[in-house]
């Protein structure tokens, strides 16, 4: 696997130029490439206190992504995970500092403290008023005398930035920053380390494990724990934070460390609200990528007991798209379904033989989940087995409220259940199949005739025919052979499914977008599911 970079030595300069060019003039940079890489506000007039931060690159959007009104005045960018030079920091200070002075916001790493600290001394020799604060919010290593600065730095950027934007003097801006630093606590967890460009990827975290408390440069954490899902991961982080949190309500910052999908981050937001510290969190920033570690598949949570004034500062809009805003953490709002969509539950009835048959069908589909997913991965998105198994599990749970003794209503009820619980086009098509079969049964058709009518309606709406490389290639011959018994239907379904492996062009479904090289020799997963179902029932 590669990375979208050009020359290794140009990674940071290329990224800065891309950021500045796409900012619409809101950002500028200093001359001095490649040693001096400083991003500044395009509208800055030195009339207020300047906020300068920075450090190693690889944490984007931090720090340059937060340069703008209400946050940073300038960001000084080092190489990936390396502190910028003293001259680069000094250039940034001198470029933006006026009579009101400058506050340096530095994360607690030796290189950053030394380079920013010496630059501050040299700037003072130039007659500039410069103060520095050091962020040390990481609680991963409780016995460490000098904790690391991580994503809680964003609280400082925003609250101190709001104060500076409002015209506060340097002492007040520094005091606001120090107050936030004193109360902020952060902790991260990841399933994998990050990939530093130009270096081999470190395989430190084994499969089935997550690392708690690793640093934003990939430094090892305090321990590796068994990974048992998102809720358990968030619970482990919340338990550590709980012991370090102050009194009163807190604002939480839910940070994507770079390689976690937005879908996963939304799940983690839900789990944060449900965790043992959820009741103490009144507002949340994110989930969003704020202080990343390249492509690390992890997250971090930062908490701070913000006052009403500080919540207002965190909530004040800024034009930088990297800042996601600060919102109240509330309950899930639920609106009633529109008229006509609320399900009308059929009258339940009992029929042990029918229930046993349906349970057998569901068990067969559930047992085939992994095999069908693997088969689908060769020609689709690898979820056919999970889609069918999920619907089967939902159907198993619904049997107690099904009209099992009335097969006409049962077919309709199955269609309704699938329309609610089964995703994708296959869910819609099978819902049509069973609903239409129920309607045909109500019109006097026997079960086989009703199922054939359901197939005809499914083909009419879905547009697929035998030979199009879909489940119909197995379902149609199976229903044709069903009058001769389940064994004959199973044989016909298997032959139809096997035939799909010879079809190198699909005319329906997602496989229609796949080249013939990926289709040749692989059975269509929908047809395979039908074949396995009939074979299992015939045993």
TrEMBL record:
| Top-rank taxon, per record | Bacteria
So what EC number does this one have? 2.7.1.121
**UniProt-listed SUPFAM superfamilies:** DAK1/DegV-like, DhaL-like
All copies of the DhaL domain together span: 352-539
Determine if Nucleotide-binding is one of this entry's keywords: yes
Q: Does the keyword Transcription apply?
A: no
Cite the GO molecular-function annotations of the record.
phosphoenolpyruvate-glycerone phosphotransferase activity
Residues of the DhaK domain:
7-323
Note the InterPro entries from the entry.
DhaK_dom, DhaL_dom, DhaL_dom_sf, Dihydroxyacetone_Kinase
Keyword terms of this UniProt record: ATP-binding, Kinase, Nucleotide-binding, Transferase
Q: What is this protein called?
A: Dihydroxyacetone kinase subunit DhaK
């Amino acid at each position: 696997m590669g990375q979208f970079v050009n020359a290794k030595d140009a990674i940071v300069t290329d990224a800065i130029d891309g950021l500045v060019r796409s900012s619409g003039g809101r950002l500028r940079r200093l001359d001095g490439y490649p040693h001096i890489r400083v991003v500044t506000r395009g509208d800055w007039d030195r009339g207020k206190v300047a906020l300068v931060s920075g450090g190693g690159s690889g944490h984007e959007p931090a720090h340059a992504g937060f340069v703008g009104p209400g946050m940073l005045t300038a960001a000084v960018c080092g190489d990936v995970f390396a502190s910028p030079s003293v001259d680069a920091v000094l250039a940034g200070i001198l470029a933006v500092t006026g009579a009101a002075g400058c506050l340096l916001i530095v994360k607690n790493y030796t290189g950053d403290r030394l380079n920013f600290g010496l630059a501050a001394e040299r700037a003072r020799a130039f007659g500039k008023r410069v103060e520095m604060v050091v962020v040390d919010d990481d609680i991963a290593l409780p016995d460490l005398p000098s904790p690391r600065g991580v994503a809680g730095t964003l609280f400082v950027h925003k609250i101190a930035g709001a104060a500076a934007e409002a015209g506060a003097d340097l002492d007040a801006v520094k005091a606001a920053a120090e107050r936030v630093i004193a109360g902020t606590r952060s902790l991260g967890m990841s399933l994998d380390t990050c990939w530093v460009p130009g270096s081999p990827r470190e395989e430190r975290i084994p499969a089935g494990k997550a690392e708690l408390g690793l640093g934003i440069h990939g430094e090892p954490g305090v321990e590796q724990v068994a990974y048992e899902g998102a809720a358990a991961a968030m619970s482990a982080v919340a338990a550590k934070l709980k012991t370090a949190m102050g009194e009163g309500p807190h604002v939480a910052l839910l940070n994507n460390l770079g390689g976690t999908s937005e879908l996963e981050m939304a799940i983690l937001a839900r789990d944060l609200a449900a965790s043992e510290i959820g009741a103490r969190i009144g507002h949340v920033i994110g989930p969003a990528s704020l202080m990343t570690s390249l492509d690390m598949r992890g997250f971090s949570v930062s908490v701070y007991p913000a006052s009403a004034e500080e919540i207002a500062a965190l909530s004040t809009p800024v034009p930088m798209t990297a800042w996601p805003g600060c919102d109240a953490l509330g309950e899930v709002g639920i609106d009633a379904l529109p008229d006509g969509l609320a399900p009308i539950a059929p009258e339940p009835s009992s029929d042990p033989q029918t229930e046993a048959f349906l349970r057998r069908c569901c068990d067969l589909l559930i047992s085939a989940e992994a095999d069908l997913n693997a088969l689908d991965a060769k020609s689709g998105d690898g979820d056919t087995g999970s889609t069918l198994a999920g619907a089967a599990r939902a159907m198993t749970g619904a049997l107690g409220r099904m009209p099992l003794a009335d097969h006409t209503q049962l077919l309709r009820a199955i269609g309704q259940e699938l329309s609610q619980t089964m995703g994708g086009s296959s869910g819609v098509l099978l819902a049509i199949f069973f609903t239409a079969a129920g309607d045909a049964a109500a019109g006097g058709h026997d079960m086989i005739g009703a199922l054939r009518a359901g197939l005809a309606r499914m083909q009419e709406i879905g547009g697929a025919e035998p030979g199009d490389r879909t489940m119909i290639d197995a379902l149609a011959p199976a229903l044709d052979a069903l009058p001769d018994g389940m064994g004959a239907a199973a044989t016909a379904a298997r032959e139809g499914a096997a035939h799909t492996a010879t079809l190198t062009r699909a005319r329906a479904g997602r496989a229609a977008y796949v080249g013939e090289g990926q289709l040749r020799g692989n059975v269509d997963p929908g047809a395979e599911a039908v074949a396995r179902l009939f074979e299992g029932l015939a045993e």
